[in-house]
Amino acid sequence: MAATDGDVVNIFGWLSDPANWTGSDGIPTQIGYHLLYSVMALLVALAIAVPLGIVIGYTGRGEALVAGSANALRALPSLGLLVLLFLVISPVVAGQLVYVLPTIVVLVLLAVPPILTGTYAGIQNADPDAVGAARGMGYTKRQILVRVQLPCALPLLLSGVRGATLQIVSTATIAAYLGLQGLGRFILDGRAQANFSEMAGGAILVAVLALLLEFGFAGLGSLVVSPGLRRSTKRSSPLPAPTEAAA
Question: What are the backbone dihedrals phi and psi of residue 73, each rounded to the nearest 5 degrees, phi first?
Fold first, then answer.
């Protein structure tokens, strides 16, 4: 059923109601839980995907296998996988972990593919002239990786992290299906109580949070990525002389 003008007014009324912004179930608290799950999943995904992406990009081995696996992970139904993981681990895990662990695993599986793809694609697409110049100056393989290829990979890596973050934040609402807190609580409770204002308000909060993070990553990219890399132009400044410390 389509929303009426009255429903739209009620949505903004729910969002502006001070009672919804206070207490243990208030909007700030639920945003905090939502971000907590998201950050936990993103950190785990980074710890898995970045080292693996560097190895694949540097060696060129396993790219086809990883690309196929990444596409398979993207196709997994998040809610179905969440329920399946809960049923599998509930006999052996106790306490809140039985609810948190499946949620984090599902979010990590969503986040790994874009980070992994961005990392190894960035390494592989490093400016060959810069790599050749570094090799000609006596850089070791490790120095070339750290000082040339990784900086060149930064734009694609950040793009992958940004995409992963948006996917995590958008999907973290599924935590509510296992009784956890978060912005999904408003959507699930609103649906159960036929409260369109609460359900739509929760969805709006998720969308706003995702947009804020999108703007944040755009600003971060402008700070940490050099203008030359952002414009995909070649570096004109000479490479620093290699040191003996990095072998």
Answer: -65, -35
Distance CA 19, CA 217 (A): 32
Domains of the chain: 28-230 (1.10.3720.10)
- Residue 167 or 149, more confident: 167
User: Which DSSP state fits 182?
Assistant: S
- Percentage above 90 pLDDT, the chain: 51
Give the pLDDT band (50/70/90) at residue 181: very high
Q: Is the pLDDT of residue 161 over 80?
A: yes
> Exposed (0-12), middle (13-18) or buried (19+): which is 226, by Cβ within 10 Å?
middle
Contacts of 100 (CB under 8 A, 6+ apart): 37, 180
Alpha carbon distance 28, 123 (integer Å): 39
Amino acid at 72: A
DSSP 8-state assignment for residue 22: S
Q: What is the rounded CA–CA span in Å between residue 134 and residue 137? A: 5
The pLDDT of residue 234 is above 60: no
